[in-house]
Amino acid sequence: MTLPPVQDKVRELCGNGTTSMKEVVERLTVICEKPINLIEYNESWGALTAFKAEFEDRINVYFPPQKSQQYKLHCIYHELGHIYLESIRVALALPDLSEEMLRETADAISVTCRSVPKHPVERWVEDFAFEMSKKSRSRSSSDPDPFL
Amino acid sequence: MKLLLFALLSALCLLRIPSVVKVAESRASWVASMFGLAALYVLGTVTPLEDIDRYLGGVNVTNLLQAIFALLAIFFFNDSVRRLANVPIVRWTYYAPLLSIPIMIVSFALIEGKAPTAAGFIDTHMDQLATAVYSGTYMIALLFTVLRIIYMLRHKAKGPYATFSAGLMVVVVAVSCHITYVVLFHFSPWVARAIGTWFDRLFYVGLSVTAAGWLILFLSKQLPRLRLWMIDALWLTALRMRVNADRSRVSPAWDLFNETLENGVYKSLIVLHNYERVNLMDFPESVQGRISHIEAKLDTQT
Fold first, then answer.
1. What are the pLDDT digits (tens) for A79-133?
2. What are residue B19's phi and psi, to 5 degrees?
3. Which of A116, A130, A141 comes nearest B274 by C-beta?
4. Which of A4, B69, B127, B128 is within CB 3.0–4.6 Å of B39 for a Cys-Cys bond?
5. Interface A-B: count of C-beta contacts within 8 A
6. Where are the alpha helices (DSSP H) in A15-140?
7. For residue range B214-245, what is the model confidence (pLDDT) as tens digits?
8. Residues B214 and B271 in one domain
9. Nearest C-alpha of chain B: how many angstroms from A27?
10. Count of domains for chain B
């Protein structure tokens, strides 16, 4: 399985400047031709940090309430990475969900989740989330000064 | 002045190693400073000129190396300015200065009686056409590249960047003096020499001003970032190592080195949150408090 370079795909999605989660969701909605809903899901999460469920007419990204805003955004970007990677037709990581989550997503076409990075796809989407965090932080190094 | 320039370029080369590892765009300017150092070295600033030249046959090859290294330094400096100013590569103007290198090598080879080693090699051999071609080509290539840099920097020449343009203008005057010297030598050697002596004085002053401006710009941008993030980055890296939050023991140190400080802090925070999730635990309150404080600081950047 050959995955495309993360930075190239991020540049394709967001260009060279900074971006926001709203813009990324809007662009992915256009690419996937389905609305993407971000849903804070207040259930028992165990070691999971977020997951994504694709339905016929929508894609839902579920995430737990988090104290850390940075971590919450990172977990959502991770799932958006899955959506993006699937849109370019690359193999998926296997889900690892609890009973409640499986019931919630019973009629989903496919499900992926965020857990500890281990699979190449998981590493790819984790790198995607990291790159997106750089682009959404205003003083990031996305436009480096070649002198410095 | 040469020694001052050597010290400034050495400081720049060392200080910029981390950013060169992290940011591919900054490599051209670092290569420029390395060639600048090489040019100054073969000028005899550290090891006596005679000793270096003796290893190369004692026929003033050091003079040719000085010219080539200086030209390459300016070439790569030009390339980083081009990136800074977002100017696309126009092949003939981009590569034209490099074409002067084979011309310089051939004309240098044609100079007769090149020995013995002398700092004033050009002046003592200027009666030969090959020397005029060699030295003239070098200076025209330098003048062309430096003028191009000044032109590309015209919109950026404010604040610290203005120092580059000021230093490079002095270099233009110096190079113009040397070109005048080459042209006038066959007609009026005494006048030519009087003008030519200004080259050495102005050339290194100009380059020193440029290098000093570069160093000031670098420090003015890096020091506030260091103050803001360095302690946090080290503390988070140490925490990652202490709790064994990564599968690899090298990862925390690698992130500290390979990422900018701010991105390194962000990465460490994510790794530590992952660690809490995977182990279904929370860090002690004091550690949580400090992590929250760092996150709040990072939030202000978002």
1. 999 999 888 865 554 455 666 777 787 778 777 766 655 678 888 898 999 988 8
2. -70, -30
3. A116
4. B69
5. 86
6. 21-32, 69-87, 99-104, 120-136
7. 778 777 777 787 888 889 999 999 999 999 88
8. no
9. 20
10. 2
